[in-house]
Amino acid sequence: MTEQTTTEHIARSDTAELTTPYTIISSDTHAGLPTELYRDYLATKHHAAFDRFMSEREAQLKAITDLGVRNEDFAANWFETNEEVLRSGWEVDRRDLELDKDGVVGEVIFPDADAVESRTCVPFGAGLGLSGDLDPELGLAGAQAHNRWLAELCKTSPERRRGVALIPITAALDDVLKEIRRIKADGLGAVMIPAMWMNQTPYHDRRYDPVWALCEELELPVVTHSGPADREAYGNHLGIYVTEVTWWPSRPLWFLLWSGVFERFPRLRFGVTEAGCWWVGNLLWFTDRLLLGSRGAAKLAGFEEIKLLPSEYFDRNCFIGASNTKRREIGMRYEIGIGNICWGNDFPHPEGTWPETLNILRKTFSDVPIAETRVMLGEAVADVYGFDLAALKPHAERVGVTPATLGQVNADGSAKDLTTKWAAAAEIGRHWLTGHDTGAAINPNAPAQEV
Amino acid sequence: MTEQTTTEHIARSDTAELTTPYTIISSDTHAGLPTELYRDYLATKHHAAFDRFMSEREAQLKAITDLGVRNEDFAANWFETNEEVLRSGWEVDRRDLELDKDGVVGEVIFPDADAVESRTCVPFGAGLGLSGDLDPELGLAGAQAHNRWLAELCKTSPERRRGVALIPITAALDDVLKEIRRIKADGLGAVMIPAMWMNQTPYHDRRYDPVWALCEELELPVVTHSGPADREAYGNHLGIYVTEVTWWPSRPLWFLLWSGVFERFPRLRFGVTEAGCWWVGNLLWFTDRLLLGSRGAAKLAGFEEIKLLPSEYFDRNCFIGASNTKRREIGMRYEIGIGNICWGNDFPHPEGTWPETLNILRKTFSDVPIAETRVMLGEAVADVYGFDLAALKPHAERVGVTPATLGQVNADGSAKDLTTKWAAAAEIGRHWLTGHDTGAAINPNAPAQEV
């Protein structure tokens, strides 16, 4: 990976490289109807249940307020200030306007446009909170309602959008497979599974093999998204929730890895979204060493299904929807794998980079090699989700974010040295595989920045 | 911390510093009786239950074999090869001999001397597997049996030993407090709590405040130890177990932190044992940023109980029994905090450094400043568990591990430059607090070593 990236970089370090616009694709945006409007996308037989669900909305709001996820003052101000612009959560023209202003030409769309008080939540809890303990029939019905609406949204400027279908895979297998085929035919581009199986069968189980097989066949990446967690254990301690909220959606990754799913389905893609990527280097180091140690066959046994190193499966099968990628994470990119990092703006959630994406990208990427930036801001996510970069080119040219926008060229437009400070880190890469004795290197004289 | 360590280092860089033996204290050893012998330490009323427990031993063995934790061939060879030496798990003279040979003069003793097939497991599952779903009465009875025996062991060469009492804090509060007072009076030096509360009340709950208050008052560090995990979810996939087995015992740390336990009990010490320390830097970065962000009072609310930064509580209240500390972790020490890292040999478990401790320490520490090595190999754990370094001095001199043993001086006995390569990392420290923009720095030209 290191060698390849370096060569690629050198080949591109010409004038065109310095001036060609970035094709920025967000691996993590959100769209959803105001909840009451999902009624029209539900089968009539579920309308009574939907009316009950709507009547329980106050209790749901109280629950997120108690945990501290919702702050009433902040919420009031948020909706007052952003009333118009938040309609971009479901109105496509406003949406494109906001994405353009934010420098983003493509998007991977998750549910729940409103993260402040769930005004656009999917019926029956089947949105970001999708989890194994939903009522199987209603959970699937709610998911379908959103999937139907989302497919309509994605049919506008389809080159810019990949809609992520909600698929509660712990429900009846036949229904699950049928819905996966349906959403593929309807133009959606990925499958979000519950981050937590809860009281259902864990994801190492072979019962899910038909799901992985179908997603591989239909070239639908399988993803989790942060949100679900062990909430009942936290009382009203928001800090516990936030500390763990990245772990739960990441957990299926090692359940699939160690149970041989990536061995049996070598073209399956699995991604973790909005759970950071700061944990990936440690995970790969830890699991690679475990497997290498097991090959010495000491105390432990039981890795017969695993033929490659965990880091090799990760490079081949996995990716990270890294959303608002932090400087610490950028510093870890040679361990994580540059091609595994898919930046995202989390539009239109307040914890994302929107509407300050360009300012934040400038802070985060101004000293990062341009070729690597192109990968993390667009090429990696295009590869995973099958965006057509040629089709996006006119949008990229219109929006016009270039290396100059991100501060990656000198004031006179000439090339900056963006490689020297990272050369050691690039050479070390995954130190446990490259014969180096410890982790990522950085330039200690780099200026203080957002971390 | 950085400044202090540097000053301390310079002050010590004299001849005495180069030749003074290390006082090596293992933060993680194991001792336990062959299970059948615990019968004599149980009250008569529990003998019938104990006989039933012993009769179920085959089923327990099968469970760990199915998960792959036990490999029959390895186990057979292990016991045949080490029959004599494994008696050091409960016979004190052999134990001291093994510790001496391994260079270790002090030890913090956890249960379960045998990690291969649990031949020395504590009755009723109350050993390393201590968890919230034990039968409250039997769990406490089993714990007491071990606590009684361990106190006897520690009365031999008490300056060398700190026994960790097993305290199932999810049991009846009065019984718990009574047992804590009893083990303190009986000479034990710390309290191990269940790593997982299971179906009992999570550790943020105020119901446990009397436990924390008493441990603070009696100067008993509270610790977890790796072992428990969500085993029912793993099927027979050992990789999943090993990948998660460090997370579950670490989890109570952020439950205590965010629920204000370290604010209410400022002298309480809490430690996580044999779960690595590679995750600490990320945790402190993530949680410090969360708290700093909350002070800006944006979307989130609810940190009223937290007055310090998480990293400040960590430095004051927490420590890591880092056992077989890896090079990657050594490279992270300026983020973790040198004084928070307590090395251990995990004696007599096969995954520890025993009986190769000196060779492994030479590989791991040969380029690490001597003053820092002294902290991680002994001074930090002495501070937490109250070892008397003066009383251990004769043992250290007899055992005779010096900086020369670890390759930290030149062949002619003169000082090596052990600081230049780490200077940048030391200066950066916790980059998010020191105005630097990313993580740990290393010397990329360092030779390949065990990672």
Search tags:
homodimer; 451 residues; alpha/beta; TIM Barrel; 8-stranded parallel sheet; 21 helices; 44% helix
List the secondary-structure elements of chain A in sequence, H or E. HHEHHHHEHEHEHEHHHEHHEHHEHHHHH
Number of helices of chain A: 21
Q: Report mean pLDDT of chain A, rounded to a whole number.
A: 91
User: Largest interface by residue count?
Assistant: A-B, 76 and 77 residues
Q: What top-tier CATH class of chain A fits best?
A: Alpha Beta
Q: What Rg of chain A, in angstroms, do the CA atoms define?
A: 22 Å
- Overall number of strands of chain A: 8
Straight-line N-to-C gap of chain A: 26 Å
The helicity of chain A comes to 40-55%
Largest sheet of chain A: 8 strands, parallel
Q: Given the C-alpha coordinates, what overall shape of chain A results?
A: globular
Oligomer: homodimer
- Low-pLDDT residue intervals, each spanning 5 or more residues of chain A: 1-7, 439-451
Find the CATH topology of chain A: TIM Barrel
Strand content of chain A: 5-15%
Structural class of the helix and strand makeup of chain A?
Answer: alpha/beta
CATH superfamily heading of chain A: Metal-dependent hydrolases
CATH architecture of chain A: Alpha-Beta Barrel
The number of domains of chain A: 1
Trace the largest sheet of chain A across and list its strands: 1-2-3-4-5-6-7-8
